[in-house]
């Protein structure tokens, strides 16, 4: 499954990042933030006046390295969800990745609908964290 999950705000500020390997956490932060440029390019292309299809929330694979594949998803409120998958894990198909994003999006929506959540703050919901941990690879 996933080795890193990140929620990035509409101003590209991280709201939640969780990784399986604490030793490579800085590397995962770099990969997540470098994927934001690709997300912005895809959003700009989808909003182009000559674009005929409506923008889809699932952006697909943003890029791949030797070790990881990075996938992106953008909500209607411009929140970006990024999942980093181990490149050696070949069994995951696009529909399984989409299901992971739908599960994360639903959990995120539940977390921010909490009346005690302050919009723009870090996501600290225990239930959301449990959902993320269920998607991460057990090392």
TrEMBL record:
Keywords: ER-Golgi transport, Transport. PANTHER family: TRAFFICKING PROTEIN PARTICLE COMPLEX SUBUNIT 2. It is found in: Cytoplasm, Perinuclear region. This is Trafficking protein particle complex subunit 2-like protein. Its main location: cytoplasm. Belongs to the TRAPP small subunits family. Sedlin subfamily. InterPro entries: Longin-like_dom_sf, Sedlin, TRAPPC2L. CDD domains: TRAPPC2L. The lineage of its organism: Eukaryota, Metazoa, Ecdysozoa, Arthropoda, Hexapoda. It comes from the Eukaryota.
């Amino acid at each position: 499954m996933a080795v890193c999950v990140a929620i990035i705000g509409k101003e590209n500020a991280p709201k939640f990042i969780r990784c399986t390997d604490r030793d490579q956490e800085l590397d995962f932060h770099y990969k997540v933030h470098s994927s934001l440029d690709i997300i912005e390019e895809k959003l700009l292309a989808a909003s182009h006046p000559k674009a005929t299809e409506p923008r889809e929330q699932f952006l697909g694979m943003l890029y791949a390295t030797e070790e990881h594949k990075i996938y992106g998803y953008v909500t209607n409120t411009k929140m970006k969800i990024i999942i980093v998958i181990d490149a050696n894990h070949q069994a995951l198909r696009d529909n399984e990745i989409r299901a992971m994003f739908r599960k994360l999006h639903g959990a995120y929506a539940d977390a921010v609908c909490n009346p005690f959540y302050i919009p723009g703050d870090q996501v600290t919901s225990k239930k959301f964290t449990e959902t993320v941990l269920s998607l991460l690879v057990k090392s």
